[in-house]
UniProtKB/TrEMBL annotation:
Segments forming domain Sugar phosphate transporter: 18-231
Transmembrane segments: 12-32, 44-69, 81-102, 108-128, 135-152, 158-175, 196-215
The protein's name: Sugar phosphate transporter domain-containing protein
Main location: membrane
Record localization: Membrane
InterPro entries: EmrE-like, Sugar_P_trans_dom, TPT_transporter
Lineage: Eukaryota, Viridiplantae, Streptophyta, Embryophyta, Tracheophyta
Keyword ATP-binding belongs to the record: no
Top-rank lineage group of the source organism: Eukaryota
Membrane-related topology note: Multi-pass membrane protein
Key words, A-Z: Membrane, Transmembrane, Transmembrane helix
GO cellular component, one term: membrane
Length: 246
């Protein structure tokens, strides 16, 4: 009994540490993105997202291939790879939209809108898997959505385009969660989160390269010029990762 209690305590401590690390990493990346896009004046959210995905590719591969934190898993079929690519597209949409919204909205309001993620998750879970939550769960979401609506009306820095982008990012994040849950729990195509990120991130980079070239004109020249003036910005781009994103 004593051993079980110790194991249970360690498990709870690990969970608390994991949740704390998740919150800390997300808040850190959010503040860094806000600094780069608004305070610093780097107005290229797609390129910023591409750096984010590139860092995710590098660090996830290092964690699996070099540090061996989890066993490496190969895609089991073309269909599974297609699903990962689709998930990567949704992932890109959520991060790009979120980065764009940070140019127009304060971080506090951005996070207030992000609190509606459970609402969108419940909606997408029902539409895709026909899974219904309990009535109490749906009722609990009502004050959250109502609070965001009220906050939107009273936000002095409200920007309609930024708000639309923020809602889009929140919805895409919820859709990613549902699709990711299906992919990670399917008996025939189960894959762990670290391997999923390792395959998603390079696909995202491939998708974002043409978008950056066509939609963010002269971004490479501007980036090189900024790097010459302040080399620390290279470190900021290199840390564009969310270690516990999945």
């Amino acid at each position: 009994m004593t051993g079980g209690g110790k194991d249970g305590g360690k498990g709870r401590l690990f969970t608390v540490g994991l949740v704390t690390a998740w919150y800390s990493s997300n808040i850190g990346v959010l503040l860094l993105n806000k600094y780069l896009l608004s305070n610093y004046g780097f107005k290229y959210p797609i390129f910023l997202t591409m750096c984010h995905m590139g860092a995710c590719s590098l660090f996830s591969y290092a964690a699996i291939a070099w540090l061996r934190l989890v066993p490496m898993q190969l895609p089991r079929s073309r269909l599974q790879l297609a699903k990962i690519a689709a998930l990567s597209l949704v992932f890109c949409a959520s991060v790009v939209s979120g980065n764009i919204s940070l140019r127009y909205l304060p971080v506090s309001f951005n996070q207030a809108v992000g609190a509606t993620t459970p609402f969108f998750t419940a909606v997408f879970a029902y539409l895709i898997t026909v899974k219904r939550e309990s009535l109490l769960t749906y009722l609990a979401l009502v004050p959250v959505v109502t609070g965001v609506i009220i906050a939107s009306g009273g936000e002095p820095s409200f920007n309609l385009f930024g708000f639309i982008m923020c809602v889009g990012a929140t919805a895409a994040r919820a859709l990613k969660t549902v699709l990711q849950g299906i992919l990670m729990s399917s008996d025939g195509e189960k894959i762990n989160s670290m391997n999923l990120l390792m395959y998603m991130a390079p696909i995202a980079v491939i998708l974002l390269v043409p978008a950056t070239i066509f939609m963010e004109d002269n971004v490479v020249a501007v980036t090189m010029e900024l790097a010459k003036k302040d080399f620390n910005i290279i470190w900021s781009w290199a840390t564009q990762k969310v270690p516990l994103q999945l």
